[in-house]
Amino acid sequence: MVLLTTSHRVAPGLLSWPAWQTLHAAQRVLCADPEHPQLPYLREAGIEVETAAPTARELVDYCVPGDRTAVILTSAVGESALTDGLARLAGSGRETMPDLELLPGSYDLPGARLLDLVQVMDQIRAECPWSSIRTHRDLAKYGIEEAYELVEAIEEGDREALREELGDVLLQVVFHARIAQDAPEEPFSIDDVAGTIVEKLVHRHPHVFGEEAAETPEDVKAHWLRTKAVEKQRESVTEGIPLAQPGLALAAKLASRVRSAGLDVTVPTGEGIGYELLAMAVRAERDGIDPEAALRAAARTYRDAVVAAEASAATES
Hints:
The protein is mainly alpha-helical. The protein is elongated and about 95 Å long. Helix 2 links the parallel strand 2 and strand 3 (50-51). The protein has helices spanning 17-25, 39-44, 56-63, 80-92, 113-127, 136-156, 159-181, 190-203, 206-209, 217-232, 247-261, 273-286, 291-316, and strands spanning 2-5, 28-31, 50-51, 70-73, 101-104.
């Protein structure tokens, strides 16, 4: 008796060779789900499939008397009633049981669960009153919030939170792509988004996918910058830097672009804390320090001091 499992995340008909051999050799092939996606392909291959849900007793009685094999094509939710029944019969000690094999007919490829996410998002977009009317502008603030929460999980070293926050950031990407799919003009889908970034990554890594060599991280960065410069054809190194990002991060990004381009630019000076922070951010970037992360770390220390002061005040009162 063979329980044949398949993945709905793999195109129907793409079964392993052992699965096809077992299916062709079996005396009976059964499936309780008449809508199982594999059925048309099995029948096209000349395999007769019975739409039936036999009990454990019926299958044992069929397989045991002779050298006969029955293959049960399992559904997406499995065959718990059947397997529980088989376990009871085997556990009684009074039954002659056939050999039972669990045969994977197809396996999920890496990244296959992303297909589930796309499918779930598609259903939510179609059926949820809130999600069905969201726009890119509606979601913009959530993208920023989720990005900050991801950074916090990374800096806190919280692995469980990191996994969750990565999922929340991924949701933003899939949600925006699903909204874009509905656009009356110039629509695109998650496949277009993925295709664009794959093309960009391949193009910017000629040392991996092409003939160029890169022995050090510095070589890789040089490749990346040269390729990016050709792609963007920018008139200024400041192009493409989002000016709405936090001030310290903005100053550090500008300083990084200036340094990478080999420009000799004097940091502006003036009255006020803004120019002092600008000078500090430029200096931090030059020394390989992320000023935004450094200030967040200091702010956490400040937060802890505030909490301690509150606890002390509560004790004294």
